[in-house]
């Protein structure tokens, strides 16, 4: 497919990796973010979901888009759907949306965008990854809790999650954007094993050599705790997703990463060990 690929959120967890994968494969990439920051091999462009004045330059000459929804917005469709209609009018043929394994088409937040996407583009895919491994090793509250306090706080109880590496999400995104045939469906992406947060705490303890515990909170306690990180409505949404984990909603493993990329997904321990080596103080 001719044209440039616009990567929205190109400095974020999956966007940066997707942009890197595309440029490494020789594709032209426009790296979009609130500030036009240099991204290796890509053309930087300023982009703000809430500022339509930034949308025209971002879309000029673009044939494909990778869409990371605005962070913390419980109704992203309000800004995303007008942009997507504009993208279609500007000549975008293929759209790949980052959603979540916890949010089906028509579900809350980005679920409304997922539901609308097939009616907007003939070529499309929705990536629905499980919870990111990077949440425990980057700048997320879980990672900071491990480093600073030796604590992981959730309302997930004994619920298990097949955490997925952002590198695997990006590898699937690159294929969904560039393969001759678009997936035309949603793709649930997981790691190779489902783990409880007690399991995660045990791995973190073994790898770091410092005690890490899983502190179990009620849904209300977690929502209150998260309001220090995100707006209250989004905190309530996240706490509700933890309760869904407790009920078994994320206790599944898929073969999607292997099927799409031809290689197995990375395991949690391997990710955590590598992150520890690259950041010894974590």
From TrEMBL:
Biased composition (Basic and acidic residues): 270-282
NmrA-like domain segment(s): 126-237
Segments of this protein annotated with the region Disordered: 260-282
Stretches assigned to the NAD(P)-binding domain: 9-105
Superkingdom of the source species: Bacteria
PANTHER family per UniProt: PRESTALK A DIFFERENTIATION PROTEIN A, PTHR43162
Protein name: NmrA family NAD(P)-binding protein
Organism: Streptomyces olivaceus
